[in-house]
Amino acid sequence: MTQAQLQEGANISALSEEPGGRKWRDYFSFNTDHKVIGIQYLVTTFIFYCIGGVLADLVRTELKTPETDFVSPEVYNSLFTLHATIMIFLWIVPAGAGFANYLIPLMIGAKDMAFPRLNAVAFWMIPPAGLLLISSLLIGDAPDAGWTSYPPLSLVTGQVGEAIWIMSVLLLGTSSILGAINFLVTIWKMRIPGMTVNQMPLFCWSMIATSAITLLSTPVLAGALILLAFDLLAGTTFFNPTGGGDPIVYQHMFWFYSHPAVYIMILPFFGLISEILPVHARKPVFGYQAIAYSSLAISFLGLIVWAHHMFTSGIPGWLRMFFMITTMIIAVPTGIKVFSWVATVWGGKLRLNSAMLFAMGFVGTFVIGGISGVMLAAVPFDIHVHDTYFVVAHLHYVLFGGSVLGIYAGFYHWFPKMTGRMLNEFWGKVHFALTIVGLNMTFLPMHKLGMMGMNRRIAVYDPKFETLNFICTMGSYLLAVSTFPFIINAIWSWMYGPKAANNPWQALTLEWMTTSPPAIENFDKLPVLATGPYDYGMSNGDNKEVENVPFSDEKEPALAAGPNSALRADPDPKVAANPEDRK
Amino acid sequence: MNIPSSIWTLLVGIVVTIVSLWYGQNHGLLPTPASDEAELVDGLFNAMLTISTGLFLIVEGALIYSAIRYRRRPGDDSDGSPIFGNIPLEILWTAVPAIIVIGIAIYSFDVYNSIGGFSPHSVHDAPIEEQAVRMPGAAIAATLSDTSPNTDSNLNQEKSDAAMQDPATAAVRNADQIPQRQNAPGVGVVSPTIGASPDKEGTPPALTVNVTGLQYAWIFTYPDTGITTGELHVPVGREVQISMTANDVIHAFWVPELRLKQDAIPGRQSEIRFTPKTVGEYKLICAELCGPYHGAMNTQFVIETPEAFEQWQKEQQVASLDLQQLVAVNSADLSPAEFLAPYVSDLGIQPEMLHQVHHTHH
Ligand code: HEM
Ligand SMILES: [Cu+2]
Ligand SMILES: [Cu+2]
């Protein structure tokens, strides 16, 4: 028996024929099923991604030539402001919450989130916030002070647009706080008995880390935005230097949230990758605890590095050094993760399907963003490249090469579970190839542009940068094209794709131990753990003796007893670990 | 885990090292270094790029190698071998990055110190302990408030006053309308600084230029000679101090060839000091988003021989006299657009931009 058969045998899939969301109308209603909400999140945020992507291509179209010949400079500033705001607050951050909503209760064997109604509330703040933001474009007064919205500039550009921006971001921040509370309580309180924290899937660890920083830092952003709104609308001068206010204080408050926010944007996908790689590499994840605890380390360190965004603005010399060192230290837990992923893949039996390709692409591209991040931490170098295209390149390698590829990997991996249908692999691979090529073509040249002297957020630039910019722009069109195979594949397969088995990937985590798509309350019976979440390869398809099991010397049920297996824990009297005993 | 035989590891290691060392020196990613400081920064960058190239090759190499070597063959449904971890290996790859970043941090620290990051003004003027002891009430509350009963002299205000002594600077700056920041308790003077390099500590710079950023122009005033211009000229080989602030929103002073950048912030005086090294004409760029015409806010930065610089100064002094008179008549409450009007050709600003200033000005 393989581990997957053992795990499936121990858990009887829910009998219900009825998946969580039954009618299309469920997805447009105040449904409290976490699976419906998860899909609502994912689809909604993907739509925003498409809008943000169109804006990005408009930005790049303007940048194809050195002159401003496509849109006016004012419109240009609105375009990149909205592009960034949408990508961050309406795509990456809520998409992470979407996966968490869908997966966490399933992974820990719960029937739903701890607070289902709060969950629905958190989701339903997003569409109005997004529509509000986009409406500013339609009324012709879009925010144009950048997604950082630094005063005093944000106080002297269009008032209506800026107020809309503040309102919309406040709503989105509230939504993510509500989500974070829900994830923490759910993971902490609703695991099936017998699943200790060290047997949780790694995605749960990454969501604990993510939710903790969300709770600690988002309120500070809210504070900054509310004060900014006072300055903007009521004439106070918290940040307005003409009345003695201090614009640098805004930067501190803003980055106290927004630096941790980059971990809010990447940690969930670190988690997803840690789930996907072992399944398709058919090997246990390498260094479970190292990966789990490094998430916590990243989230803690992430809170004390914010001023590295301010090396050229207004902090004293010794503080620059403090923030340089804390920032560099983050490279260590991040490095641990990257090396563990590589070691997970090394020596496996890789099924190079679309999910796996995106997951490996994630590791490969994220590394580039991570390396340039360490360079940016070095103060003397950051002083040179701050606010240039080098930074634009860095952030896209992290957010596109990291988060977006992670989301795609997750889509391909869990699509069968969510919809009960398989995606088309051929078009998945086409999607992958176009994305990787487009991504590097768009963002790689930007490193050089920045170092040579092209600053960011400009509609006109020195003609000597034209060639590289042209390449970037063509790459961005390729990226736009690359989404079509995905969109068509997803819609078509959702309707007509081949039916998916309950556990098409022979995975071991609990979400695969129920029907595809799962029934309303996920499991008919309380699921049990017959193996750890990543015990691949403990028996190779037959019952021949297992060699090389490093942490266990038992033979039977050693088969099932990797270091993260419940069978290794002290038996919990409430749960029978052995499936035979449960009948 | 199938660790390749040590010979292969060695060979790959040698190749990776050679490639990294070569690329770290021959990347061609940075423009001419035109100041003493730039050389130091480039050294740091080259070192980081060497290490980065090595890391990049190792990680990407391992991924691509795995994808080819360990791909599932048709018909093979077995799993890989169950390896859950390897403590020595994990310690190794925690230790190696840790050592690397410590090394980079020390190197950066050294470069930062050499370019004058720790100039005495920002550190010694406000020792933390001293401030904290004198602070009435809760220490935390005190640090948050800048109206604490701190009667120390305020370096930021002093620097602003000093700059405003120069009539040419006073004519273009609106420091009288924007209150100057106080020293922040415990943090020292709020003005951010790249000061004198340690060997030039205590000596005044050979040349001081006051720089004022406003939407969408840089204005340079030379207190020693009373010159006001729209281009920055400096003589090669002499240490220059730039004292900057902004009149409206935040701007950032950046010359890529100097590798130096500093925000010009309304209400704060910030400084950078550098020694120009390579004669040439470069671009001085505004690097902080400052409004729709931010992209067009740049000007010439000229490093010239001392003789050429003298010559330029003479020409400017004649021209500036006229401008001084112009400004003296109607300085205070002009909008930047009105104020800038006479400078248009001087500053290389396109007329439609100024037109725009009229419209967007608040
Ligand atoms: C679809 C492909 C994308 C393209 C072609 C693209 C292009 C660009 C460009 C050209 C800029 C610089 C604008 C300027 O400085 O004037 C930019 C900025 C930015 N982009 Fe993207 N982008 C893409 C995807 C993303 C994604 C997925 C994210 C995810 C969060 C993202 C987040 C940002 C952010 C935060 C900025 C900074 C904006 C600012 O400086 O205010 N972008 N993008
Ligand atoms: Cu500017
Ligand atoms: Cu600017």
UniProtKB/TrEMBL annotation, chain A:
The keyword ATP-binding does not apply. GO terms for cellular component: plasma membrane. It is a multi-pass membrane protein. The chain crosses the membrane at residues 39-59, 79-100, 121-143, 163-190, 202-234, 254-273, 285-306, 318-343, 355-379, 391-414, 426-447, 467-492. Pfam families: COX1. GO terms for biological process: electron transport coupled proton transport; oxidative phosphorylation; respiratory electron transport chain. It catalyses: 4 Fe(II)-[cytochrome c] + O2 + 8 H(+)(in) = 4 Fe(III)-[cytochrome c] + 2 H2O + 4 H(+)(out). Keywords: Cell membrane, Copper, Electron transport, Heme, Iron, Membrane, Metal-binding, Respiratory chain, Translocase, Transmembrane, Transmembrane helix, Transport. Its EC number is 7.1.1.9. Pathway: Energy metabolism; oxidative phosphorylation. It comes from the Bacteria. Its main location: membrane. Residues 24-530 form the Cytochrome oxidase subunit I profile domain. GO terms for molecular function: cytochrome-c oxidase activity; heme binding; metal ion binding. Residues 542-557, 569-583 have a biased composition (Basic and acidic residues). InterPro entries: Cyt_c_oxase-like_su1_dom (IPR023616), Cyt_c_oxase-like_su1_sf (IPR036927), Cyt_C_Oxase_1 (IPR000883), Cyt_c_Oxase_su1_BS (IPR023615), Cyt_c_oxidase_su1_bac (IPR014241). It is found in: Cell membrane; Membrane. It is an enzyme of class 7 (translocase). Residues 540-583 are annotated as: Disordered. Cytochrome c oxidase is the component of the respiratory chain that catalyzes the reduction of oxygen to water. Subunits 1-3 form the functional core of the enzyme complex. CO I is the catalytic subunit of the enzyme. Electrons originating in cytochrome c are transferred via the copper A center of subunit 2 and heme A of subunit 1 to the bimetallic center formed by heme A3 and copper B. Belongs to the heme-copper respiratory oxidase family. This is Cytochrome c oxidase subunit 1. The lineage of its organism: Bacteria, Bacillati, Cyanobacteriota, Cyanophyceae, Oscillatoriophycideae.
Automatic annotation (TrEMBL), chain B:
GO terms for cellular component: plasma membrane. PROSITE patterns: COX2, COX2_CUA, COX2_TM. Its EC number is 7.1.1.9. The keyword Repeat does not apply. It is a multi-pass membrane protein. Its cofactor is Cu cation. Keywords: Copper, Electron transport, Membrane, Metal-binding, Respiratory chain, Translocase, Transmembrane, Transmembrane helix, Transport. Residues 204-315 form the Cytochrome oxidase subunit II copper A binding domain. It catalyses: 4 Fe(II)-[cytochrome c] + O2 + 8 H(+)(in) = 4 Fe(III)-[cytochrome c] + 2 H2O + 4 H(+)(out). GO terms for molecular function: copper ion binding; cytochrome-c oxidase activity. The keyword Transcription regulation does not apply. The chain crosses the membrane at residues 7-24, 44-68, 89-109. Pfam families: COX2 (PF00116), COX2_TM (PF02790). It is found in: Cell membrane; Membrane. Its main location: membrane. Belongs to the cytochrome c oxidase subunit 2 family. Subunits I and II form the functional core of the enzyme complex. Electrons originating in cytochrome c are transferred via heme a and Cu(A) to the binuclear center formed by heme a3 and Cu(B). This is Cytochrome c oxidase subunit 2. It comes from Chroogloeocystis siderophila 5.2 s.c.1.
